[in-house]
Each structure stands twice: as structure tokens, then as C-alpha cells.
């Protein structure tokens, strides 16, 4: 029988972190060896898989947890402020980072790629682990060849820290690769209220909606003479991201270098 992949979870007490813990515990090919959160204590999996005690203690210090447990992979769903230092700590211990937190700059990704290659291991930074969201981005890039006039509207809850979302930025990057820069709208247009037209990216606009009661949706709207095309993806539950996270954990074991985008792990 093949050795289980040992997994540590950063942000284990958060809503996404708890889903990752659940997924790891339910997969016989994976082993939860460490959990990192704001408050220390045992990981209670009673409501997850019927086990009152996982044997894993939540640590508040990432370096101590990695040093003690020696995992193969660190899954991080924390926040933009913590993601970069967490990734560097993981790499320092030879642990493969699978990062679902956004906010990395191209320069940071390049630097992390260099660190990965120096260690001879792989890492992944994924703005979105949803297969449906990846398809939405792919279809949008295809459409941009024929509908160059486009705007992106993304919706998240009011507690999301970054705007625009990593998914919308990744979508914009894909669209920009498929179409030449085209400055849209009336050349004489004027924003009566600053920011009303959204954030500017390569000639088009990204609009970020932040409201309570919203989970995660994105709509890409294309306009042409006499017609529009809308490509939309809606997420309703965090469990929808877990098949992607599971795939990333297993595939990252055979990768060298830092990969940006979960789409690279799809067949």
C-alpha cells in the first residue's frame, strides 16, 4: 500500500479550513498531521467523520507545527497578509505549499518559484479551486477573441478582504492573452462619482460587489452590436472547492516549481 500523503492545514479553524480538514480526514490516501489556527487545542472531528479525537492538536505557530509533524503538503486558506510568510516558512521546511489565498504579486510568485526550485519541490497558488470557475475563465478567454468588449462583475460577502478577487484578476489575465488591449467606452466619458466605472485592467473594467448574504459569484459580460453574451459561475458551498484541493494535494507531489493557477492541474 502506498504511503499516505501527510497534510498540514493552516487556517484550520476558519470556514474553508474546516472543510479542508474534513476532506483530508475522509480520504484514505491522506493523513492530517498538523493544524494551525489562532487558538490552540485538539481538532474535534466528531461532527465530521464520527471520530471524537483526531490526535492532532491545533498549533498557533506554523514553524513549530511543521517542524514537529514534517508534513508533505501545507494547505493554506488564511488571508492575504499571512499567505506570503506562511508559504516561505513552508518552503524553508521543505513542505509543498498549496495556497488558496489571493493577493500575491507577480514578483512574489516569481520569487517563490525560485525558492521551490532551489528546494526541488512544487507549490501551487490558486485563485480558485472550483472546476466550474476554471471553465468559466476558459470559456471567457475563448469568447474574448470574438467579443473584445467585456466587463467583469464579481460578487463576494462583505467580509472578503481583497478587491477585486483573485478569480476576477485571473480571468482578466486570460482574457488579455486572447485579445489586444482595447480601451472601451466613450472617449469623453466622465465618472461623476470616482470609481463608478470599476477598476481598469487592459482596457476593460472589473466591478467588485461586497454584500452580506453573498457567497461567491462572477459574471463576465461581453457586448457587441445587437447582442450580449454572459458567462456566469455561482458557488453556493465551500465543499464545492474540495475536489480541486484534493487533486492539488496529490498532484503537487510530482511537481517542481511554483505553479500559478489550478487549471494547470486539470487534464
TrEMBL record:
Every Dihydrodipicolinate reductase N-terminal domain range: 5-129
Annotated InterPro entries: DapB_C, DapB_N, DapB_N_CS, DHDPR_bac, NAD(P)-bd_dom_sf
Span of domain Dihydrodipicolinate reductase C-terminal: 132-266
Pathway of action: Amino-acid biosynthesis; L-lysine biosynthesis via DAP pathway; (S)-tetrahydrodipicolinate from L-aspartate: step 4/4
Annotated positions binding (S)-2,3,4,5-tetrahydrodipicolinate: 166-167
Any GO BP annotation: lysine biosynthetic process via diaminopimelate
Reaction catalyzed: (S)-2,3,4,5-tetrahydrodipicolinate + NADP(+) + H2O = (2S,4S)-4-hydroxy-2,3,4,5-tetrahydrodipicolinate + NADPH + H(+); (S)-2,3,4,5-tetrahydrodipicolinate + NAD(+) + H2O = (2S,4S)-4-hydroxy-2,3,4,5-tetrahydrodipicolinate + NADH + H(+)
Residues where NAD(+) binds: 11-16, 44, 100-102, 126-129
Main location, first listed in the record: cytoplasm
EC number(s) stated in the UniProt entry for this protein: 1.17.1.8
Key words of the record: Amino-acid biosynthesis, Cytoplasm, Diaminopimelate biosynthesis, Lysine biosynthesis, NAD, NADP, Oxidoreductase
One MF term in the entry's GO annotations: oxidoreductase activity, acting on CH or CH2 groups, NAD or NADP as acceptor
Subcellular location(s) per record: Cytoplasm
Family stated for the protein in its record: Belongs to the DapB family.
Function in brief: Catalyzes the conversion of 4-hydroxy-tetrahydrodipicolinate (HTPA) to tetrahydrodipicolinate.
Record-given protein name: 4-hydroxy-tetrahydrodipicolinate reductase
Gene that specifies this protein: dapB
